[in-house]
Amino acid sequence: MIHHFVADEYVKNVFQIDLEKLKTNGKRVILTDLDNTLVGAAVKAPTPEVIEFLNRAKELGFEVIIVSNNNKERVSYFAKDLSIKAAHHKALKPLKLKLRKILKQYHRSEVIMIGDQLMTDVLVAKRLGLYTILVEPIHLHSDENSTKFNRRLERFVVKQLKKRQLPTPPYLD
């Protein structure tokens, strides 16, 4: 179970992700969290940098799908002008139900999950057999209470990972 908290890659932000390498390795679908992954939780619309990143991913042939635990209004407003494959709200990560529905049309070896939380994004993706990339959260002070609780649990999990000499997020070292 502890291995479900080990991401395949750790990067500072989404802009450091090597999309070309992922494409070469057979990946073609990006599931990405929204808040504190693409933008801070208080940022309502995509930044020019995020738009550029997502456009680059689409140019390389990736299908991009936002998968957020946030509400429909937040996710829809953010995604409305992005022309991405889909945007899903209330994903209930780390539960697998909603992501399983999304994954029915893809081979899991082609899918990556990008997120900022071990307790939701990495855990659900690993339980589904997906490649995971953990980014450093953009703005911790804007986290919801449930996320703040998850961040405390994250610190405990990281201690357990270190005891077993498993890779940990650099920002939590």
The Cα radius of gyration reads 15 Å
Q: How far apart lie the N and C ends?
A: 21 Å
Average predicted confidence as pLDDT = 91
Task: Briefly note the CATH topology name.
Answer: Rossmann fold
Q: What does the main sheet amount to?
A: 6 strands, parallel
CATH H-level superfamily = HAD superfamily/HAD-like
Q: Can you tell me the number of structural domains?
A: 1
CATH 2nd-level architecture = 3-Layer(aba) Sandwich
Residue share in β-strands: 5-15%
Order of helices and strands: EHEHEHEHEHEH
Figure out the total of helices.
6
Category from helices, strands and their pairing: alpha/beta
Sequence of strands across the biggest β-sheet: 1-6-5-2-3-4
Overall number of strands = 6
Shape: globular
Q: Which ranges are low-confidence, i.e. pLDDT below 50, for 5 or more consecutive residues?
A: none
Helix content: 25-40%
Can you tell me the CATH class?
Answer: Alpha Beta
